[in-house]
Amino acid sequence: MKKETDYLLFCSKCGIPQPIPNYILQAYFISGVDGVYCSNCENKIIIPEYLKKIAGDL
Q1: How many folded domains does the chain comprise?
Q2: Which of 21, 23, 33, 41 is the 20 to 30 Å CA partner of 55?
Q3: pLDDT digit string (tens) for 9-55?
Q4: In whole angstroms, what is the distance from residue 13 CA to residue 1 CA?
């Protein structure tokens, strides 16, 4: 059985964790998108460089 890793970003405004699906990691972060929007308060969450590196390794 394959174990999947889930990645979370925490909103810097409201603190709600935002799950990052693998397809988002692969499709968006690799192509240069620098953030995602919180589903609770719509604040832009900047993607840290270490997550972009992880996305590149997938």
Answers
A1: 1
A2: 41
A3: 899 999 999 887 777 777 766 677 778 889 999 999 887 777 767 66
A4: 37
